[in-house]
Amino acid sequence: TVTFVLDTSGSMGVGGRIERERAVIRAIAASLRAGDIVSAVTWNTAQREMLSGYRVTGRNDPRLLTLASNLSPSGGTDLSGGLAAGYALAQRNYGDGRLNRVVVISDGEANVGITDENLIAAQSHFAEREEIYLVGVGVGDGFNDTMMNTVTDRGRGAYVFVDSDAEASVMFGERFTETMRSWRNERRGR
Prior knowledge:
Blueprint: E1 2-7, H1 17-31, E2 37-43, E3 47-55, H2 62-69, H3 79-92, E4 100-106, H4 117-125, E5 132-139, H5 145-154, E6 158-162, H6 165-174, H7 176-180
Parallel strand pairs: 1-2, 1-4, 4-5, 5-6
Antiparallel strand pairs: 2-3
Helix pairs in contact: 1-2, 1-6, 3-4, 4-5
């Protein structure tokens, strides 16, 4: 069960960041199997639910590819609000006995709402009891690795930096299981 938390703020329009975000979604879509569950929320200064509990039809599900293609950057960056909306969506679609992951893709900037990295990280901490772990994906030059590191540590996960479409394919294609699994969990359905 994968819940995308997708940064669509104006800063994502700089330096190919939105293109890297699209590449990550496409790479994950290529790794999913029929019946895997996907939810998605986009965020800038507001949050918008795009998918909720959607069962993919198989690899490269057209709906996921369309989601990736339609992302466009605008507005400020409310990372805290985006994470809160993403975790609420993940809890609503929690799959008992499944691997449950929130995948936040962002440049790690926060300039609207709560901007303190420790307060933002608190959004990812409460879902630990549900075994909903966080996978952070940093994109773009000037990526705020301190923010992403703090947020993913509290979310019992880790982050990767994706600087090209090829890197997205490696991390979420060839190394999909390794990237998405927490070191504490065994193999399960997604």
